[in-house]
Write a structure and sequence with these properties.
Largest sheet: 6 strands, mixed
Helix content: 25-40%
Distance between the termini: 25 Å
Bound molecules: prephenic acid
Number of helices: 13
Strand content: 25-35%
Shape: globular
Oligomer: single chain
Length: 366
Protein backbone atom coordinates (compact mmCIF):
# COMPACT_ATOMS: atom_id res chain seq x y z
CA UNK A 1 0.00 0.00 0.00
CA UNK A 2 1.20 3.53 -0.69
CA UNK A 3 2.62 5.66 2.09
CA UNK A 4 0.28 8.48 3.04
CA UNK A 5 1.76 11.95 2.45
CA UNK A 6 1.81 14.07 5.56
CA UNK A 7 2.66 17.68 6.29
CA UNK A 8 6.38 17.27 6.87
CA UNK A 9 6.82 15.45 3.56
CA UNK A 10 6.05 18.57 1.56
CA UNK A 11 8.69 21.21 1.45
CA UNK A 12 7.59 24.59 0.20
CA UNK A 13 11.16 25.42 -0.71
CA UNK A 14 11.02 23.28 -3.86
CA UNK A 15 9.63 24.89 -6.98
CA UNK A 16 8.34 23.77 -10.41
CA UNK A 17 10.69 21.60 -12.34
CA UNK A 18 13.77 23.07 -13.71
CA UNK A 19 16.88 20.95 -14.14
CA UNK A 20 18.27 22.61 -10.99
CA UNK A 21 15.29 22.27 -8.70
CA UNK A 22 14.40 18.67 -9.54
CA UNK A 23 17.23 17.22 -7.44
CA UNK A 24 15.79 19.01 -4.42
CA UNK A 25 12.31 17.61 -5.10
CA UNK A 26 13.61 14.10 -5.67
CA UNK A 27 15.25 14.22 -2.28
CA UNK A 28 11.94 15.15 -0.63
CA UNK A 29 10.11 12.35 -2.42
CA UNK A 30 12.83 9.78 -1.74
CA UNK A 31 12.52 10.16 2.00
CA UNK A 32 8.74 9.91 2.11
CA UNK A 33 7.31 7.90 -0.72
CA UNK A 34 7.98 4.28 -1.71
CA UNK A 35 11.01 3.49 -3.84
CA UNK A 36 8.82 2.42 -6.75
CA UNK A 37 7.05 5.79 -6.60
CA UNK A 38 10.37 7.59 -6.46
CA UNK A 39 11.58 5.86 -9.60
CA UNK A 40 8.40 6.84 -11.41
CA UNK A 41 8.81 10.41 -10.21
CA UNK A 42 12.43 10.44 -11.29
CA UNK A 43 11.43 9.32 -14.74
CA UNK A 44 8.69 11.94 -14.89
CA UNK A 45 10.84 14.73 -13.55
CA UNK A 46 13.72 13.89 -15.86
CA UNK A 47 11.27 13.87 -18.79
CA UNK A 48 10.03 17.34 -17.83
CA UNK A 49 13.59 18.60 -17.36
CA UNK A 50 14.40 17.25 -20.78
CA UNK A 51 11.42 19.03 -22.32
CA UNK A 52 12.36 22.32 -20.76
CA UNK A 53 15.71 22.16 -22.51
CA UNK A 54 14.26 21.57 -25.97
CA UNK A 55 15.81 23.96 -28.43
CA UNK A 56 18.75 24.95 -26.23
CA UNK A 57 22.00 25.12 -28.15
CA UNK A 58 24.24 22.39 -26.86
CA UNK A 59 26.67 20.02 -28.44
CA UNK A 60 26.82 17.25 -25.84
CA UNK A 61 25.41 13.84 -26.74
CA UNK A 62 22.48 14.06 -24.28
CA UNK A 63 21.17 17.13 -26.08
CA UNK A 64 21.66 15.53 -29.49
CA UNK A 65 19.39 12.62 -28.47
CA UNK A 66 16.53 14.88 -27.45
CA UNK A 67 13.41 14.70 -29.59
CA UNK A 68 11.06 17.61 -30.13
CA UNK A 69 7.80 17.74 -28.18
CA UNK A 70 4.71 16.51 -30.02
CA UNK A 71 1.03 17.14 -29.42
CA UNK A 72 0.82 13.65 -27.88
CA UNK A 73 3.33 14.68 -25.20
CA UNK A 74 1.05 17.55 -24.25
CA UNK A 75 -2.32 15.83 -24.30
CA UNK A 76 -1.95 12.06 -24.86
CA UNK A 77 -1.40 10.56 -21.42
CA UNK A 78 -3.75 12.98 -19.62
CA UNK A 79 -6.75 11.61 -21.55
CA UNK A 80 -6.92 8.19 -19.83
CA UNK A 81 -4.99 9.26 -16.76
CA UNK A 82 -1.95 7.07 -17.31
CA UNK A 83 1.13 8.82 -16.06
CA UNK A 84 -0.91 11.15 -13.84
CA UNK A 85 -0.49 11.19 -10.07
CA UNK A 86 -3.66 12.26 -8.28
CA UNK A 87 -3.51 13.36 -4.62
CA UNK A 88 -6.54 12.71 -2.41
CA UNK A 89 -7.31 12.91 1.28
CA UNK A 90 -7.56 9.56 3.01
CA UNK A 91 -6.17 6.07 2.59
CA UNK A 92 -6.82 3.45 -0.05
CA UNK A 93 -10.53 2.66 -0.34
CA UNK A 94 -11.69 6.25 0.35
CA UNK A 95 -14.43 7.64 -1.88
CA UNK A 96 -12.06 10.39 -2.97
CA UNK A 97 -9.81 7.70 -4.45
CA UNK A 98 -12.76 6.33 -6.44
CA UNK A 99 -13.48 9.87 -7.67
CA UNK A 100 -9.85 10.22 -8.80
CA UNK A 101 -10.12 6.91 -10.68
CA UNK A 102 -13.37 7.97 -12.31
CA UNK A 103 -11.79 11.18 -13.58
CA UNK A 104 -8.46 9.62 -14.60
CA UNK A 105 -9.04 5.85 -14.98
CA UNK A 106 -5.39 4.76 -15.17
CA UNK A 107 -3.94 7.30 -12.78
CA UNK A 108 -1.65 6.63 -9.85
CA UNK A 109 -3.42 7.75 -6.66
CA UNK A 110 -1.45 9.48 -3.89
CA UNK A 111 -3.03 9.25 -0.41
CA UNK A 112 -2.63 12.37 1.78
CA UNK A 113 -3.32 12.94 5.46
CA UNK A 114 -5.33 16.13 4.99
CA UNK A 115 -6.93 18.15 2.20
CA UNK A 116 -4.34 20.86 2.66
CA UNK A 117 -1.57 18.33 1.98
CA UNK A 118 -3.27 17.25 -1.26
CA UNK A 119 -3.19 20.90 -2.42
CA UNK A 120 0.46 21.24 -1.45
CA UNK A 121 1.35 17.97 -3.18
CA UNK A 122 0.18 19.52 -6.48
CA UNK A 123 1.72 22.91 -5.78
CA UNK A 124 5.08 21.26 -5.08
CA UNK A 125 4.94 18.96 -8.15
CA UNK A 126 4.69 15.77 -6.08
CA UNK A 127 1.30 15.13 -7.73
CA UNK A 128 -0.28 16.39 -10.98
CA UNK A 129 -3.86 16.70 -9.75
CA UNK A 130 -5.75 16.88 -6.45
CA UNK A 131 -9.27 15.61 -5.96
CA UNK A 132 -11.49 17.43 -3.47
CA UNK A 133 -15.03 16.61 -2.24
CA UNK A 134 -16.98 19.87 -2.35
CA UNK A 135 -20.65 19.00 -1.72
CA UNK A 136 -22.95 16.12 -1.01
CA UNK A 137 -26.63 15.75 -1.79
CA UNK A 138 -27.46 14.80 1.83
CA UNK A 139 -24.75 16.46 3.92
CA UNK A 140 -24.43 19.71 1.94
CA UNK A 141 -21.28 21.73 1.31
CA UNK A 142 -17.85 20.80 2.61
CA UNK A 143 -17.04 24.29 3.85
CA UNK A 144 -13.39 23.74 4.64
CA UNK A 145 -12.71 22.93 1.01
CA UNK A 146 -14.30 26.16 -0.18
CA UNK A 147 -11.86 28.01 2.10
CA UNK A 148 -8.92 25.97 0.79
CA UNK A 149 -9.83 26.75 -2.83
CA UNK A 150 -9.30 30.41 -2.09
CA UNK A 151 -6.24 30.02 0.10
CA UNK A 152 -4.39 28.04 -2.57
CA UNK A 153 -3.70 28.97 -6.18
CA UNK A 154 -4.82 25.78 -7.93
CA UNK A 155 -7.34 25.80 -10.79
CA UNK A 156 -10.47 23.65 -11.10
CA UNK A 157 -10.03 21.56 -14.25
CA UNK A 158 -12.87 19.05 -13.85
CA UNK A 159 -15.68 17.71 -11.70
CA UNK A 160 -16.86 14.23 -10.86
CA UNK A 161 -20.18 13.17 -9.34
CA UNK A 162 -20.02 9.90 -7.46
CA UNK A 163 -22.85 7.84 -6.07
CA UNK A 164 -21.79 7.13 -2.47
CA UNK A 165 -23.13 3.88 -1.02
CA UNK A 166 -22.10 3.40 2.59
CA UNK A 167 -21.71 0.06 4.39
CA UNK A 168 -21.47 -0.76 8.07
CA UNK A 169 -18.23 -2.71 8.50
CA UNK A 170 -16.84 -4.70 11.43
CA UNK A 171 -14.34 -7.47 12.15
CA UNK A 172 -15.44 -10.95 11.11
CA UNK A 173 -16.77 -12.36 14.38
CA UNK A 174 -18.55 -9.13 15.40
CA UNK A 175 -22.37 -8.86 15.24
CA UNK A 176 -24.35 -5.68 14.73
CA UNK A 177 -25.64 -5.78 18.35
CA UNK A 178 -22.03 -5.89 19.68
CA UNK A 179 -21.34 -2.41 18.30
CA UNK A 180 -21.10 0.43 20.83
CA UNK A 181 -19.16 2.84 18.65
CA UNK A 182 -18.95 3.64 14.93
CA UNK A 183 -16.08 5.53 13.29
CA UNK A 184 -16.14 7.45 10.02
CA UNK A 185 -15.62 10.74 8.23
CA UNK A 186 -18.04 13.39 9.63
CA UNK A 187 -19.79 13.71 6.24
CA UNK A 188 -20.34 9.95 6.09
CA UNK A 189 -21.69 9.90 9.67
CA UNK A 190 -24.07 12.73 8.76
CA UNK A 191 -25.22 10.87 5.64
CA UNK A 192 -26.11 7.80 7.78
CA UNK A 193 -27.84 9.75 10.57
CA UNK A 194 -31.01 7.59 10.64
CA UNK A 195 -29.27 4.20 10.70
CA UNK A 196 -26.78 5.25 13.37
CA UNK A 197 -29.52 6.75 15.56
CA UNK A 198 -31.48 3.51 15.29
CA UNK A 199 -28.40 1.49 16.33
CA UNK A 200 -27.83 3.79 19.37
CA UNK A 201 -24.07 3.79 18.83
CA UNK A 202 -21.59 6.51 19.73
CA UNK A 203 -20.30 8.26 16.59
CA UNK A 204 -16.68 9.19 16.33
CA UNK A 205 -15.29 11.34 13.55
CA UNK A 206 -12.01 10.43 11.87
CA UNK A 207 -10.18 11.77 8.80
CA UNK A 208 -11.74 9.50 6.17
CA UNK A 209 -14.04 6.51 5.76
CA UNK A 210 -11.33 4.06 4.65
CA UNK A 211 -9.09 5.23 7.52
CA UNK A 212 -11.92 4.28 9.91
CA UNK A 213 -12.08 0.78 8.35
CA UNK A 214 -8.30 0.42 8.54
CA UNK A 215 -8.31 1.42 12.24
CA UNK A 216 -11.06 -1.05 13.17
CA UNK A 217 -9.23 -3.87 11.35
CA UNK A 218 -5.72 -3.05 12.61
CA UNK A 219 -6.82 -2.87 16.25
CA UNK A 220 -9.09 -5.94 15.88
CA UNK A 221 -11.86 -3.99 17.64
CA UNK A 222 -14.85 -6.02 18.80
CA UNK A 223 -17.20 -3.23 19.86
CA UNK A 224 -16.47 -0.73 17.10
CA UNK A 225 -17.57 -0.59 13.48
CA UNK A 226 -16.82 1.72 10.56
CA UNK A 227 -18.95 3.43 7.92
CA UNK A 228 -17.08 3.01 4.65
CA UNK A 229 -17.28 1.59 1.13
CA UNK A 230 -17.55 -2.03 0.07
CA UNK A 231 -14.10 -1.52 -1.47
CA UNK A 232 -12.69 -0.58 1.94
CA UNK A 233 -14.22 -3.80 3.38
CA UNK A 234 -12.28 -5.79 0.77
CA UNK A 235 -9.01 -3.95 1.27
CA UNK A 236 -9.01 -4.20 5.10
CA UNK A 237 -10.69 -7.62 5.25
CA UNK A 238 -13.77 -6.55 7.18
CA UNK A 239 -17.26 -8.01 7.19
CA UNK A 240 -20.15 -6.04 5.64
CA UNK A 241 -22.84 -6.00 8.36
CA UNK A 242 -25.21 -3.75 6.40
CA UNK A 243 -25.23 -2.22 2.94
CA UNK A 244 -26.68 1.07 1.65
CA UNK A 245 -27.05 2.55 5.12
CA UNK A 246 -27.14 6.18 3.92
CA UNK A 247 -30.37 8.07 4.68
CA UNK A 248 -31.38 8.21 1.03
CA UNK A 249 -30.48 5.83 -1.78
CA UNK A 250 -29.56 8.85 -3.92
CA UNK A 251 -26.43 9.96 -2.10
CA UNK A 252 -24.18 11.85 -4.45
CA UNK A 253 -20.91 13.59 -3.69
CA UNK A 254 -19.47 16.11 -6.11
CA UNK A 255 -15.68 16.26 -6.33
CA UNK A 256 -13.44 18.84 -8.00
CA UNK A 257 -10.23 18.09 -9.87
CA UNK A 258 -7.50 20.66 -9.31
CA UNK A 259 -4.32 21.41 -11.24
CA UNK A 260 -1.51 23.95 -11.28
CA UNK A 261 -2.64 25.33 -14.66
CA UNK A 262 -6.16 26.02 -15.95
CA UNK A 263 -7.47 24.11 -18.96
CA UNK A 264 -8.41 25.95 -22.12
CA UNK A 265 -12.19 26.31 -21.90
CA UNK A 266 -14.13 24.87 -24.83
CA UNK A 267 -17.61 25.15 -26.30
CA UNK A 268 -17.69 21.63 -27.78
CA UNK A 269 -19.49 20.19 -24.70
CA UNK A 270 -21.32 21.52 -21.61
CA UNK A 271 -18.97 23.53 -19.41
CA UNK A 272 -19.33 24.91 -15.93
CA UNK A 273 -17.44 27.88 -14.45
CA UNK A 274 -16.75 28.46 -10.74
CA UNK A 275 -16.04 31.93 -9.38
CA UNK A 276 -15.68 33.61 -6.00
CA UNK A 277 -16.47 37.28 -5.37
CA UNK A 278 -17.19 39.80 -2.63
CA UNK A 279 -19.43 42.86 -2.62
CA UNK A 280 -19.84 46.12 -0.78
CA UNK A 281 -22.44 46.10 1.97
CA UNK A 282 -25.79 47.63 0.96
CA UNK A 283 -29.36 46.87 -0.08
CA UNK A 284 -29.73 44.88 -3.28
CA UNK A 285 -26.01 44.27 -3.82
CA UNK A 286 -26.33 40.50 -4.10
CA UNK A 287 -29.46 40.90 -6.23
CA UNK A 288 -27.46 43.12 -8.61
CA UNK A 289 -24.62 40.58 -8.73
CA UNK A 290 -26.92 37.69 -9.58
CA UNK A 291 -28.72 39.77 -12.20
CA UNK A 292 -25.57 39.80 -14.38
CA UNK A 293 -26.24 36.10 -14.97
CA UNK A 294 -30.03 36.09 -15.19
CA UNK A 295 -30.11 38.96 -17.75
CA UNK A 296 -27.88 36.82 -20.00
CA UNK A 297 -29.89 33.66 -19.40
CA UNK A 298 -26.96 31.92 -17.66
CA UNK A 299 -28.05 29.20 -15.26
CA UNK A 300 -26.54 29.23 -11.75
CA UNK A 301 -26.06 25.74 -10.32
CA UNK A 302 -24.56 26.49 -6.89
CA UNK A 303 -24.18 29.40 -4.51
CA UNK A 304 -22.29 29.29 -1.21
CA UNK A 305 -21.40 32.13 1.14
CA UNK A 306 -18.43 31.99 3.50
CA UNK A 307 -17.26 34.59 6.00
CA UNK A 308 -14.08 36.46 5.08
CA UNK A 309 -11.70 34.88 7.55
CA UNK A 310 -9.25 37.78 7.76
CA UNK A 311 -11.92 40.47 8.26
CA UNK A 312 -15.16 38.81 9.35
CA UNK A 313 -16.77 42.10 10.43
CA UNK A 314 -17.17 45.26 8.36
CA UNK A 315 -18.04 48.59 9.86
CA UNK A 316 -20.89 50.33 8.09
CA UNK A 317 -21.89 53.66 9.70
CA UNK A 318 -21.24 52.28 13.15
CA UNK A 319 -23.07 49.02 12.41
CA UNK A 320 -21.03 45.87 12.18
CA UNK A 321 -21.85 43.24 9.56
CA UNK A 322 -20.32 39.95 8.59
CA UNK A 323 -18.32 40.31 5.39
CA UNK A 324 -18.91 37.45 2.98
CA UNK A 325 -17.31 35.73 0.04
CA UNK A 326 -19.77 34.31 -2.48
CA UNK A 327 -18.83 31.14 -4.33
CA UNK A 328 -20.89 30.61 -7.42
CA UNK A 329 -21.04 27.94 -10.18
CA UNK A 330 -22.76 28.68 -13.48
CA UNK A 331 -23.45 26.67 -16.61
CA UNK A 332 -21.26 28.35 -19.23
CA UNK A 333 -17.72 28.17 -20.53
CA UNK A 334 -15.30 31.07 -20.21
CA UNK A 335 -14.85 30.68 -23.97
CA UNK A 336 -18.43 31.90 -24.31
CA UNK A 337 -18.81 35.70 -24.87
CA UNK A 338 -21.96 35.73 -22.81
CA UNK A 339 -20.06 34.43 -19.77
CA UNK A 340 -17.17 36.83 -20.38
CA UNK A 341 -19.58 39.77 -20.52
CA UNK A 342 -21.35 38.64 -17.36
CA UNK A 343 -18.04 38.61 -15.47
CA UNK A 344 -16.97 41.96 -16.96
CA UNK A 345 -20.25 43.38 -15.70
CA UNK A 346 -19.81 41.81 -12.24
CA UNK A 347 -16.27 43.16 -12.04
CA UNK A 348 -17.61 46.74 -12.40
CA UNK A 349 -18.97 46.64 -8.84
CA UNK A 350 -17.53 43.51 -7.13
CA UNK A 351 -14.84 44.35 -4.57
CA UNK A 352 -13.05 41.10 -5.45
CA UNK A 353 -13.50 38.51 -8.20
CA UNK A 354 -11.55 35.36 -9.02
CA UNK A 355 -12.33 32.67 -11.59
CA UNK A 356 -11.57 29.33 -9.89
CA UNK A 357 -11.92 27.34 -13.12
CA UNK A 358 -13.93 26.65 -16.26
CA UNK A 359 -14.27 22.91 -16.84
CA UNK A 360 -16.43 20.22 -18.51
CA UNK A 361 -19.54 19.28 -16.56
CA UNK A 362 -19.79 15.69 -15.34
CA UNK A 363 -22.96 14.30 -16.87
CA UNK A 364 -22.30 10.61 -16.11
CA UNK A 365 -23.29 9.61 -12.62
CA UNK A 366 -21.43 6.52 -11.33
O1 LIG B 1 -13.76 9.71 3.62
C1 LIG B 1 -13.82 9.49 2.41
O2 LIG B 1 -13.88 8.36 1.93
C2 LIG B 1 -13.84 10.63 1.49
O3 LIG B 1 -13.50 10.48 0.35
C3 LIG B 1 -14.38 11.94 2.00
C4 LIG B 1 -15.88 12.12 1.80
C5 LIG B 1 -16.27 13.63 2.04
O4 LIG B 1 -15.44 14.43 2.46
O5 LIG B 1 -17.43 13.96 1.80
C6 LIG B 1 -16.24 11.82 0.40
C7 LIG B 1 -17.41 11.26 0.07
C8 LIG B 1 -18.44 10.98 1.06
O6 LIG B 1 -19.36 12.05 0.96
C9 LIG B 1 -17.91 10.90 2.44
C10 LIG B 1 -16.69 11.35 2.74
Amino acid sequence: MATKLHGASISSSCHPPSPKSSSCKIKVITTRVSIQRTNQSLRRISKISCCSEVGAASTNSRSQNKRPLTTTDLTGSFKDGSGIRVAYQGVSGAYSESAAEKAYPNCETVPCEQFDIAFQAVENWIADRAVLPIENSLGGSIHRNYDLLLRHRLHIVGEVQLSVRHCLLANHDVKIEDLKRVLSHPQALAQCEHTLTRLKVVREAVDDTAGAAQFVAQHKLKDTGAVASVGAARIYDLNVLAQDIQDDSDNITRFLMLARDPIIPGTDRPFKTSIVFSLDEGPGMLYKALAVFSMRDINLTKMESRPQRKRPLVNNDGLKHFDYLFYCDFEASMADYNAQNALKHLKEFATFLRVLGSYPMDINLV
